[in-house]
Write a structure and sequence with these properties.
It holds the Pfam family DinB. By secondary structure, this protein is mostly helical. Helices cover 59% and strands 4% of the residues. The chain has a two-stranded antiparallel sheet. The model has no long low-confidence stretch (mean pLDDT 92).
């Protein structure tokens, strides 16, 4: 199953690359733009949030490691290359996570989450699935935000890639 999960993640990574190539064509000030008073993230901060989700669930929760996150002020200064670097670390983390839990995908993992008093219980398969679907959810939001800024996003659907 681990080989299947590696391949699945590679497909996801390829769709992410299409999004990165598109974002590189947008001026940085647009990528860092957040609608005043809307409470919405910028494209950059939302994309870093996706990387942080992987780090939170896979590294902190699943592998029980300490994770240090960039501050909001630091993230607001990021460009696409810095976000790419975040995801390069995520790619390495996902492969490590898959290796760590090979043949133990239904094992119960328990750890604290900030929104409840008692420990949260789940499986490595749930953690990986959650982080991947979370990325696709926000990829759609990023594409929508770019469209609202006047940029037409490419088709990042897996079916549109020539694999």
């Amino acid at each position: 199953m681990s080989n299947v999960l590696r391949q699945q993640y590679e497909y996801l990574r390829l769709t992410r690359e299409v999004l990165f190539a598109f974002l590189e064509e947008i001026p940085l000030e647009k990528l860092q733009y957040s609608e005043p008073g809307s409470g919405r993230d910028s494209i950059i901060t939302l994309h870093v949030h996706v990387a942080d989700c992987y780090r939170n669930w896979l590294e902190r929760f699943g592998l029980k490691r300490t994770v240090v996150y960039a501050t909001d002020e630091e993230i607001q200064q990021y460009d696409v290359n810095q976000v790419r670097a975040c995801f390069k670390a995520v790619d390495e983390l996902v492969l490590k996570f898959i290796e760590e839990f090979e043949d133990r995908w239904q094992e119960t993992i328990e750890n604290q989450v900030r929104w409840q008093k008692e420990p949260f219980r789940t499986t490595p398969l749930w953690l990986l699935t959650h982080t991947e679907t979370h990325e696709f959810h926000h990829k759609g939001q990023i594409a929508s935000m770019a469209r609202q800024l006047g940029y037409i996003p490419p088709d990042t659907d897996l079916a549109s890639l020539n694999l």
